[in-house]
Design brief:
The chain is 77% helix and 0% strand. It contains six helices and no strands.
């Protein structure tokens, strides 16, 4: 008899695979709309690639890309834009994953502050809650 097919991936892996496909589709759409070399397309590409690297445990490489995305967004959108705040939080998260808590804490706080103050986002938004949770963990680890 022919070999049986491999078992399907667990639901969490299926969800991650679907999420990656959706992100790739969004990047392609943005590249078509804004141009492949626009600062925001490049920032989103860096963020996507950084997320993939983080999931693979390659935190140093992810941090480099998150920092590049942050600088592109700061230049294109300014400090108080929610997308810039998300990049700020991503850099803070990557730093925290590497144990650089003192450097991570003010970046995470900055992300939470901007997102909380942004109309249409606010303190209850899932992204704000996510970064607030990481900030709380970092704060607990730095005060212990």
């Amino acid at each position: 008899p022919p070999p049986s097919p491999p078992p399907p991936p667990p639901p969490q892996q299926q969800q991650q695979d679907l999420s990656l496909v959706q992100m790739q589709q969004q990047l392609k759409a943005m590249a078509l709309q804004q141009g492949e070399n626009s600062p925001l397309t490049l920032a989103n590409t860096h963020s996507f690639n950084a997320a993939v690297l983080q999931k693979a445990g390659q935190h140093a490489q992810a941090l480099t890309l998150h920092r590049q995305a942050l600088e592109l967004r700061r230049t294109a959108l300014g400090e108080r834009h929610p997308d810039t705040a998300i990049s700020l939080g991503n850099v803070g998260t990557a730093l925290a994953q590497q144990g650089q808590l003192a450097e991570a804490k003010p970046l995470l706080q900055g992300a939470v502050d901007v997102l909380t103050a942004t109309e249409g986002v606010g303190a209850a938004h899932p992204t704000t809650v996510h970064f607030q949770g990481i900030l709380s963990q970092v704060a607990a680890r730095t005060s212990a």
